Amino acid sequence: MSKRIIRSVLVALLCVFSGFGASAQDGAYTSYSPYSVFGVGDLYKEGTAYSRGMGGVGIAARSKRFINYMNPASLVNRDTLSFMLDFGLSNENKIYKQGSIKSANNTFTINNFVFSIPIYKRLAVMAGLTPFSTAGYDFSHSITDQDLIGRTGNITYTSSGSGNVYQLFFGAGFKITNRFSVGAEIMYYFGNLNKDTNLEFERTDMRDIDTGYKLELNAFSGKFGFQYDQPLGNDMTLTVGATYRIPAKVRGYATDYEYASVSSIVDTTRYDIDTLAHSKSVKFGGEWGVGVSLRKGDKWTAEVDYIRSGWTKSGMDTYNGFSNIGNSTFTTTVSQSVRAGFEIVPNRNDIRYYLRRVAYRFGAYYENAYYKLDGNTINAYGLTFGVTLPVFRYYNGISVGFDIGRRGSTTGNLTQETYGMVVLGFNFHDIWFKKYRYD
User: Fold this and answer.
1) Alpha-carbon distance 76 to 123, whole Å?
2) Which one of 159, 210, 278, 370 has the lowest number of neighbouring Cβ atoms within 10 Å?
3) pLDDT for 195-223, tens place per residue?
4) CA–CA separation, 209 vs 118, rounded Å?
């Protein structure tokens, strides 16, 4: 492996650990949404900048130029001596609307860190770290009821939350035949979510009340996938893929606390630690997905995916710390999404015009969340765009994905989110054990 790639890996690792350390600091949000109040927060959109620019597809994607960690069966579609690494960052801007109230926020986080190496001509492995879910919110309002003011003064109600659950994974893909490949992946989830509610009284002789939950979560899961290629002639190939993720039983601790304070004196009135175990089962939902792609050589690719994830038996809608935050009724349900994407490269081998070697992508998606609020399904839809700019030799490049969409509505107590996300990915590629004729 070249010194240049080694330096790139070390720099990427430094950025990853620095980024995750910064996100753990108080007041630092990696995502921001009032919908992350409930459950395990917002589930992070899976995929590198490559797939994010194509509507989030990847179950049937087969490309030797990019790492596709959405289906481990795709790992074997590569140059047999190639080392690959993908490191991504994301920035999201949101505008919120509830009735006549509007606000905005922007966040920045690590999108993914994943690398892949070949073990044998029919076997390849990968390992990586990505966000799985995130919580981030901070809102308040004042109670100015005249009946209360005479006795207590104004009361300010504040609710805030932060934290992340990350996904550490290791997977392998094996090519059974030239057309059929299978893959398996083991995943470890870990992280902390903090949800805090505060009642602050205007009168200094009244006790302020601070209540909330601290969730320390970890879980193991597995994922399986396959892909099958069917040549159609005229350099056309049809690929069918499928994946299945096992439901994950959550372990860790759920701390329920309450503090009462007046002036500088703080009393702990409740501090209960509950161990998450099988007797009070909380689960991350299982997931299965299918995808179909059609590609013409190295010229263009089109793909459509369908993903379904069952959370109705997650136990989160009855477990304190996951369910009883705020006034809305929270119930878990089945999450579904439909995604479609297209990529075209005018001429990868053009030596005269650089823009003809650039990969251009666009896509669309429609999805609903893994929960309902007051019986309302939370839907999201959007359009995506992306490019990959070739850099140096081999398949090195810089990928940029754009996601513009909307989630929720303004009916009832719901909030409508209009968002725009940019994902920046760095694709590193090198050939191992290559013997040069001249040094």
Assistant:
1) 6
2) 278
3) 988 877 776 666 678 888 899 999 999 99
4) 57
